[in-house]
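PROTOCOL LOG
Step 1. Enter all chains and additional molecules of the complex.
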Amino acid sequence: MTARSVAGYWTGFAVVLALLVAAPLVLPEFWRRFVTEILIWGLLAMSSDILIGYTGMVSFGHSAFFGLGMYGAAAALLAVRPANLWLALLSGLVAAAVVAIFVAYFATRLRDIYFAITTLVFSQIFYVIIFTWTDVTGGENGLNFARPTLSIPGLFSIPFTTETLHWFVLGVVTLSYLILRRITQSPFGMVLQAIRENEPRTRAIGYRVERYKIVAVMLSGLFAGLAGILYAIQNKFAAPDFVFFLVSGETVIFNVMGGMGTLVGPVAGAAFFLLLREGFSRFFTEYYLIPVGLIFTAMVIFMPQGLLGFLRRRLNQ
Amino acid sequence: MLTLSDVHTYYGKSHILNGVSLEVRAGEVVGLLGRNGVGKSTTLKTVMGLVRPSEGRVTFEGREIGGMASHRVAHLGIAWVPEDRRIFRLLTVMENLRTGLDRPGVTEARRAELLDKIYASFPVLAERRNQAGGTLSGGEQQMLAIARAMMLEPKIVLLDEPTEGLMPRMVSQIHEIIDVLHRDGVAILLVEQNVPLTLEASDRVYIMEKGVVRHHAPAADLRANHAVIHQYLGI
Amino acid sequence: MGIPVEQILIQTINGLVNGMILALVASGLTLIFGIMDVVNFAHGELVMLGAFVGATALGVTGNFWLALVASTLVIAAFGAILQVSTLRPLLGRDPLTTILATFGVSLVLQKYALWQWGPSARKLQEPISAQFSLFYLQYPWYRIATAVLSAAIIGALYLFLKYGKYGIGIRAAMQDRVMAQAMGIPVPLLHTAVFAIGAGMAAASGVLFGPLAGVTQTIGADFTLRAFIVVVVGGMGNLGGSILASIFISLLEAYASLIVSPAQAVIVSFVVLILTLLFRPTGLFVPTAR
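Step 2. Run joint prediction.
Step 3. Record the structure below.
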């Protein structure tokens, strides 16, 4: 990238960041939470972009990572009193990692459609387990728990307000974005994209494609799990609905609508989808998915690069 | 009857055909020689509508066919016998032939007639008519591929390296088949690596190099003068 | 374990009945994949729509069989329109875009059904209410009828593919689309026709299944998932394989629900899928390529 476009990029980044920081101060309550939710779903979308957009492995399994991150955090928040934020983070990430290992194993042995279907089945397996194992997971009703405080035991303990929670989420998401961006722009990221473009050739050149795929899945799974943890903290409940493959489907929608392989695209896609949902709900109530679904399908056919897809080349040099 | 004028074709970013011009008149056997990778197969595929030319014109009997869908090209009277034969392996020999026979406008009687004719010309196929295509030997599959093409009652057959991988005995059989088609008035555009066969079976020969036609002469001239062959094909 | 033999036999019959209905759905799906490399995520929704249209037709005509035929034809036509509008433009693109596009369509169809017919379940009255004594149960004749009818429809499909006028063309196109087209076979038209056939078969299974379980707009997703599993286990594009796999998986699930709850019995199909993908990824019922 030229020096000028680099400067342009960071300026844009700073502007968006500033807006997001200011958001909770100027927006009414409902919209405050809305923006926070966009950030969380955006993180989920970014995580799946690593797999779908960068490595070219379409996955319908992100609801498993997300859901297990959520339940993992819930477990920690319920088991340990007082509710400890860091434990929740750790617990959720571990849970997501375990799922990721399973999926990673299959990622190396299956290609394309078979991988996509298997990941879908995985989400459903976890869904069924969580839905029916009522004793542990609360079954259909899910789990309710208290929001942890931002604390370092022994030093301080600050309860979250809507604003501070928003900034915490923003901080986590921004940090995640920067880390993921660094990774995608590194040689590692370049290899992932090479795998997407032409896997046999990348293998022929000598890259251990399996290893790269495993790492990609783990990364994707961890950040998706992180999103799940944030969601649990924000909403104070965990429910099996979030493990249902529909969440995976929505994630894929964010990716396609926003522009795969750009990292920022999926975040924009999440925002776009949620805004559409909000807007259409006003007119169509629960049938908002009809126009939104039509828009999505039309985009797959006519605008497969998504909203920000034109930026893909620029952002990934 | 069939004309290519300055045809350019790309595979993705590769510029395979770089301005190919040639022509096949009704009833002629035209040979297309050249080293591996010069674009001979691609030329046939462009005629067949399997790849779309980016520039130039392909006309058949006065009609522009560049980029036309291949099933419509087939209905115009152009049949393709691809390099790897591409027999429908899970269909029987008879069913393979039926793929060419089951066209609109062909009566049941005509179909029976055509089948009988082909079984007479290729007794091996008659024997194996209910066997799956995939169980045939290489030579038999090649015959089936040609027979299948003939079911279309074509005006021109695009033959892509029919003798590749075949034993010498089979090669002479292919030669016979080409002669029979020629006698029946079917034109042939023959792509081959087998130079002697091509020179003997063809009326005229084009020689391609790197996506263009470099030389063009009646086969008789090339039979007499091998220097040109040496020059382009290094044989 | 101490499960009485009668229960096992009853579950065998149940498994076979469910298996035949699932086979009807799965054969359409595998045919569609075989000929045009499309993984139709909306297939279950076609089943669901078929059931709803059948229920409406039943309400209008009062005749179950008429409703079955009407629904099959309507959804087949709808399938053709769907294929031409959303799938034909995607020809030649990455096959994964078809999953995405059909996923989008499934969302729209599901919510459309909700809007058109409302959230409460519809009941499809079975045409045959007679029952026969099976051990200690009164077993409905209707269930046997659905299995027989499904088998008949699949049988008709098989005969059409083997001997029918376009059957050879379809089979040829499934093996080698490019060569089939070069032989003059109008492959794009066949794509639409096959999709319509698959949709019609899905609708038929929806109508047949309706009386057994009630018609809501959520039954689609369940069918889609199970049909996918069956198609992969049976070998994608392999008609016989998908039928065998449907029966195999349905039998296993039926037996499993003797031990665990039906909600948990579905894990059986998941496990079978994973094992298949690990050890025989081309399909359990496909002879391994030499």
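Step 4. Note key features.
The mean pLDDT of chain C is 87.
Chain C touches chain A through 37 residues (CB under 8 Å).
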